Amino acid sequence: MVFQAQLKKLYLKVDLKQLRFNETIGDERRVVKQIILNFVSNSIKFTITGGILIQCSNDEDFVVISVIDTGVGILQDDISKMFQEYTMLEATQEVNGNGNILI
Predict the structure, then answer these.
(1) With contact defined as beta carbons under 8 Å apart, do 95 and 46 qualify?
(2) What is the pLDDT of residues 80-101, one digit of tens each?
(3) pLDDT bracket for residue 103 (50, 70, 90)
(4) Pairing of strands 100-101, 51-59
């Protein structure tokens, strides 16, 4: 993914300063890693200029992971559609004609 960001001349920053893991059980670590990779991959895909910031921190008993980018974003009206399977959003279609979000 770093290579993909470099090809597009995007910055990719990771901030883990505040992160504390108490424990992960079984396959949880792999699942969390895959979710983060999916978010970062989509950020790279839909960001034309600027870059991506990944921040991880703790909030009481939870780990908070934020993937922040300078991409096209999601229209306010489409936020409710984000968790519908195989959804295509209008704003992302303008970037490369694809715009699929897989849940």
Answers:
(1) yes
(2) 887 788 777 765 545 544 444 4
(3) very low
(4) unpaired
